[in-house]
Amino acid sequence: MKNRIIDTSLQLFEKHGFHGVSVNQIVQESGTSKGGFYHHFHSKDELLFVIHDYFISYVLNKAMEAISTSTHPTEKMQKMITSFVKVFDLYKPHISVFYQESGYLKPLYASAIKEKREKYKTLLFNLLEEGVAAGEFRPELDRTITGMSILGMVNWSYKWYKREGEKSIEEIAEIYVDLILHGLLTTEAKQDSRYARYFLNNKALT
């Protein structure tokens, strides 16, 4: 029931906007009841927060998993970028509503979302420093500008990505990995056989 309510509200919010949709409409369209709605959500505001929290929690958890299960910075970065890109397919409706309606989040909920976004950014920035210390990432690249460039480039995917497009989300993730690692890695790291599979020219040869 919870997922049905969320799926229905995503469709309604995208079409009519957050303030253009009532709890009664969500209940009616989802074929549930007000009791069922308030069993899962205290309010429509909490529902909007949950929609936002779903995909932000997913990408944050995947980033922490990549960092904790891998040894080398380049491998961690590849996994982190890949999971980041894939979220735009897994949670496309959630992200559309996020960018459309995030201004309506109550301060408490907005703060919780901001905290997770900042935590993700910190993980990325720390990984950039780790890569430089390990001799894998170019030390001359400014950490803040590099990190914000990666976030900005991947985040913009929500503007143009379409599931029915020419490239699958997996193929798009591989392109992002190739672009970012080519700019990020030192000459020596690019020649490391462990990372050859991350570059598209090597995939074309296999």
UniProtKB/TrEMBL annotation:
Residues 1-59 form the HTH tetR-type domain. GO terms for molecular function: DNA binding. Residues 22-41 bind DNA. It holds the Pfam family TetR_C_24. Keywords: DNA-binding, Repressor. This is TetR family transcriptional regulator. It comes from Peribacillus psychrosaccharolyticus (Bacillus psychrosaccharolyticus).
